[in-house]
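User: My advisor, Dr. K., asked me to get a structural model of this assembly before our group meeting. I'm new to this, so sorry if the format is off. These are the inputs:
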Amino acid sequence: VNTTATLPIPFVPGITLESLLKALLTVVILAFLGEVTKKAIIRASKETDLTWILNEDTAELIFRLFVLGGIIGALYALGVMKYTLGPTTIGNLAFAVGFFYISYLIAKKSKDYLLQTKRGPEDIIKAKIFYYLFVTVTFFLALSFAGVMGELGALLAAAGITGIVLGFSSRTVVANFISGIFMYFDKPLQIGDAVQVGDVQGVVEDIRILSTRIRTWDGTLVRIPNEMLFNSNIVNLQRYPVRRVDVSVGIAYAEDAERAIEAILKTLDEMPLVLAEPEPKVYVENLGDSSVVLRVWAWAPSERWFDVRTEVVRRIKEALDREGIEIPFPQRVNWFANELRVKLEDE
Amino acid sequence: MKTFGEHELRTQFIHVGERKIHVVENPDGTFTYRRDDIKVKLLGGRHLWVLPAPAEGYGVKFLMVKLEERLAVPPGETVHGYLSAPVDVIVKAGNAPIDRFIVGREKYALYGEHAIGVIARYHVSCFHEKEPDSLGVIKLAVRNPTKEWKLVERVVIPIRNSVMFYSDEKAYYPLIILTTKEPYEVNNTGNPPDGRLKATHRAEPLPNFRMRWWP
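Assistant: The format is fine. Below is the predicted structure of the whole assembly, which you can bring to the meeting.
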């Protein structure tokens, strides 16, 4: 008769030495198997093209799966799992926690994989939506496995006032979330787009589930809640392939406007990124207080708009200087109703 | 004077259109490649390759050649001719590209609508019966398989990653076939316009391009 097998452990009621040994053995064996599998996967990853699935991350995931299985097995061996905790057992809770943890790792890995293979703005959003949906669904499944769904419902119902308070406090979060989903389908902007939202102008860095981040031209990061973004006028500066450069130039009244227009058109024609089609246009826009105002319309590739604009202004100035066409200062001619008398005094 | 092809590494000028490449031998036996502000020190090798490249400019996929005079093609006929064309130039030491530049006039245009068009390299050319005296040449065949006269005002050619051909003095795009069935279809055949020309690399077939906005 093996008397040690049923020897109780001091200060730990219900746990025998045998069950403790079984538990330890379970953890050690499964951890060992996990380590062996991990090494096998890492070895295989160096000899295969299927690195998207056979890689170090997968190996680590499998190792953790084994260890988790070992811990749950050990807890069963110790008899801890049958203890009740409120409406459920520790076993159910442990299984639910393990299930959710593994599901979370799988969701994270799948998202990373999707982002590795496809890097387009739409793919990033799809990957995120998949990740959040997967985690949400598995979270509720885990609650169900834990056997606390019914109790959770009752608890929520009982905490009606708390729920209302929570509801009000989370209104903004929900609104941002819903706006984020609407924006996904509406597609007013995409990651990488140059946009202007209110006073903020820059490049969309990231579209998250609650907010959108914009890197401004001066290198700062602005976080805009999705609800605010959804309700704003969004100007997408590069949605179309071409964008027009508009410049106004004033020339003196004494100058020949036609000659100035020809000089400007010639300058635009010499600029590679001022598109030949649609044709640039230069016309007299206005007879101003101090000058004849010419309006210049030149189309440029959207992604080069800023460079083209600065270049157009510089070259027009040069061209008009070269042609001797005056760009006047503001000036005013004063007429006096009565003859103007000037009195000179001797010093 | 030789422009394209293999050039021995020695102190010399290589003229490519209006551009000039200067190769200088250094006292230590190495060479320096110079073009405008570009400088590359060549630590070995014996030759330099000056090759034509499609006129992608700042990175466009299409070349739009606008004809100075529109072509009216009779039904059932195929006409052959030549267009002048812009080319880029790529300079290689061994397999490594050390410089790329644009020769001639650089201009771009929108092909298509404001909202859904594409930016294309832009060039205006006559339809020549004989090979024009330009650095870059396109041999164009216009097929009209329909039963009606067809007008051609421009040709939009897919050029990204296209093979190019060259003689010592000139660069050639592959034979281009424009078929005037609607929508007009442009085929960059990848074939040399003339069997005596050398290819820049092995040609890979490019998909036919349907001109969405024609003629």
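One thing worth pointing out at the meeting: Chain B touches chain A through 15 residues (CB under 8 Å).

User: Perfect, thanks a lot.
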